[in-house]
TrEMBL record:
<keyword id="KW-0349">Heme</keyword>
<keyword id="KW-0732">Signal</keyword>
<dbReference type="GO" id="GO:0009055">
    <property type="term" value="F:electron transfer activity"/>
</dbReference>
<feature type="binding site" description="axial binding residue">
    <location>
        <position position="82"/>
    </location>
    <ligand>
        <name>heme c 1</name>
    </ligand>
</feature>
<dbReference type="GO" id="GO:0042597">
    <property type="term" value="C:periplasmic space"/>
</dbReference>
<keyword id="KW-0249">Electron transport</keyword>
<dbReference type="Pfam" id="PF00034">
    <property type="entry name" value="Cytochrom_C"/>
</dbReference>
<feature type="binding site" description="covalent">
    <location>
        <position position="35"/>
    </location>
    <ligand>
        <name>heme c 1</name>
    </ligand>
</feature>
<dbReference type="InterPro" id="IPR036909">
    <property type="entry name" value="Cyt_c-like_dom_sf"/>
</dbReference>
<keyword id="KW-0813">Transport</keyword>
<feature type="binding site" description="axial binding residue">
    <location>
        <position position="140"/>
    </location>
    <ligand>
        <name>heme c 2</name>
    </ligand>
</feature>
<feature type="binding site" description="covalent">
    <location>
        <position position="139"/>
    </location>
    <ligand>
        <name>heme c 2</name>
    </ligand>
</feature>
<dbReference type="InterPro" id="IPR050597">
    <property type="entry name" value="Cytochrome_c_Oxidase_Subunit"/>
</dbReference>
<keyword id="KW-0574">Periplasm</keyword>
<protein>
    <submittedName>
        <fullName>Cytochrome c553</fullName>
    </submittedName>
</protein>
<feature type="domain" description="Cytochrome c">
    <location>
        <begin position="115"/>
        <end position="206"/>
    </location>
</feature>
<dbReference type="GO" id="GO:0005506">
    <property type="term" value="F:iron ion binding"/>
</dbReference>
Length: 208
């Protein structure tokens, strides 16, 4: 009888722990839904889609936002909204949120756009040797899904507006959280037309 009671209590305890773990991440994710959508697919062009993103990349970004909050923006990635949001997150909560969003299906960002030429596709697939611009596909993959092991992000599901904004931030030094400054170096060589062409091409890439 004692053994049965012990086993029963243990199972209830384990069940309770799993219930807490299962509800903690969605509860935290609910706070993010105002900007990033209830399922991680943002409905606001200024904010990124998190659904389907590489977990390691999301984890690093949240850690960078938290570092900025704890260092008065001297370290990490400073952002007036995200730094405050990430300031109190624990390592476990960050890892849980990253995995939660990585597991959500991503939706295509825009309806089909009439592409006037292949400028965006050509830059993405092959870069431009004459200007020493590396191909986006080299790090983000030919399908735009990124590289999990390296922590390079997926670009799928992002709006043209958001993509151009991030390229501009890298170009002008407002964002410096890229690996070995690769995005800063690449974006510095891109024109506004290059950025728009790339963004429109990426936004229409298949997400399945």
């Amino acid at each position: 009888m004692k053994i049965r009671l012990f086993l029963g209590s243990t199972l209830l305890l384990i069940s309770g722990l799993f219930t807490v773990q299962a509800t903690t991440v969605p509860e935290k994710a609910a706070i993010c839904s105002g900007c990033h959508g209830t399922d991680g697919n943002s409905l606001v062009q200024e904010y990124p889609t998190l659904a389907g993103q590489r977990a390691l990349y999301l984890q690093r970004q949240l850690q960078a936002f938290r570092a900025a909050a704890h260092s008065n923006n001297k370290e990490g990635r400073a952002d007036p909204i995200m730094s405050s949001m990430a300031a109190t997150l624990s390592d476990a909560e960050i890892a849980g949120l990253a995995q939660y969003y990585a597991n959500q299906p991503v939706h295509k960002a825009t309806k089909p756009i009439a592409m006037t030429d292949d400028a965006g596709k050509n830059l993405f697939d092959g870069g431009d040797l004459s200007r020493d611009i590396a191909a986006c596909a080299a790090c983000h993959g030919p399908d735009g899904k990124g590289m999990a092991a390296a922590g390079f992000p997926s670009l799928l599901g992002q709006t043209p507006h958001y993509l151009v904004e991030q390229l501009q931030k890298f170009k002008h030094g407002d964002r410096k959280d890229d690996y070995q400054g690769m995005m800063q170096d690449t974006s510095a060589k891109l024109t506004a037309q290059d950025m728009q062409a790339l963004a429109e091409y990426i936004a229409q890439m298949p997400t399945d």
